[in-house]
Structure formats: C-alpha cells, structure tokens
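Many introductory courses stop at the sequence. We go one step further.
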Amino acid sequence: MTKIITKKELNTLKTYDRFLVKDNSLMKRIKYENLYTIKTLLNHKSTLKKIKELLLPIDLYKTLEYIPKHFYTMEFLNGTTLKVLMDNKDKNIFNYLYKLGYALEKINESYSDLIIGDLHEGNIMVVNNEIKIIDPDGFSIKNHENIRSHYLMSSILLSEIDPYPINKYPLDNEEFIIPNRNTDLFCYIMIILNTLGGTSGFYNYLNYEYKYLDYLSYLESIGLSKDLIYILKKIITKEDNINPYKEIKKIDPNVLESTNLESYQKKIYHY
C-alpha cells in the first residue's frame, strides 16, 4: 500500500549523503520507470525477505501533486562497499564473492523473475561480514527490465563476441542489452575478474576476446582450477552461463599475488 507524504513533511526531513532520512531509514526518490520494480518487490516481500542478502524497500510513498513524486524507504546500512574492500586487498574478499554468488542462486530459486541487472562492486555492501545487494530501484523484473547496467553498458568484450549470442544477451530496439539470468552471471564474473586482476577497472583490460582467453590460460597455468576456467570461458559463448560460486570458495587468497595485472604482464612480456 502506497503511503502519502506531504511537501511540508519532505522539507523537514534531514539528509544523509544523497538520501533523505525518515524514521531512522533512508528515503530515496524513484524514477517513474523504476516504480514497477519497487511495487513488485514490496508485493513479493514475504518471499524475498528470506534472501537476507537483498536490501529490500520498506515502504512506498507518494506526494499529493498533479504529477506525484514517489519515494521508498530502506534500511540504513553501516558498512563498506565491496569495491573498497577489493581495492584494499581484503583477506576475506573471496568469501564475500562466494556469498554473492550464493545469493544469486537463492534469488534464481526463490523468485526467478527478479534480476539484479546493475550488479557491480559499488552496489554490494559488506556489513558485519555479510553481503547486501543494494540499490533496489535499479533491480529488474522480467518483462520490465531496467537496462541501465554498469558492466552491460561499458564492456567492450560483449560487443566483440563473434558471432554475437543474441539469445543469450538479447538487445532492445536501441541495442541495449536486456538484463536476464545470463547477464547477472556475466556481471558477477566481471567482479571476480576485477578481484583477480587487482583493481575494479581490470575488466577494461580484458576488452577483446584474445586478451580474455590469454588471461584465462595464464590463470590456469598458475594453478586455478580447470572447472573455474571452463565456467569463465562460457561468458563468450552462446551457451548459458554457469554460476562459479562453488569454485570461488576454493580459491586461496594468496593467489592474488600472482593473478594481478602487473604479475600477468611480467609473465607474458618477460620483464
């Protein structure tokens, strides 16, 4: 049920970063195109609240105007983004990545119409060693997809696949990739590769198929499992992607000393 909030009440609310604060919760304005997502999340809250890794909306509000403005409230999280932990080489990073992949499995099993869509390190919070996938108005619902996605809009690698797997990564009329289960796993794998490469921008280095495959060969040569390499290769094929979370749990954090971009370049360029 949508609640009413007056302009006067809005004007009295304090701000925190880019949010308003209401009753110890964060309040965010929703773009009209994302309103369906928030309503759907609220309607399926009894199912989705079992997935503790999701940050879900608490309430939906609207103003009494000719064209009403909509807002939603959500829990205030006191934590750190996965991006910060990744850049700081946190020793528990692979544990967090495992939990993220496991969360994607639970979402697919519990409510497969929900797609995260804009999945990247900045939209993952770590709070008391547990992960939270944030920015719920950026989530997608099947047949009402939000096409704004960090990795889907910026990855040259996807556009270089030949022939392009249109059924796996479908395009809309403006040739934006439509989020689905395969794209969520693609984004998850980009996060994993950034972790291995030592920076949240490492995916930009792997912008062509030959570079990507060369790096995967290097990972296999230094001892990463063949099963993981097989899964990572799938993102540039026409076959459905596989969630590598079980393989991620097996990775020794010390491997980061060898998988980073500098170590890789020393190996291939012999300097």
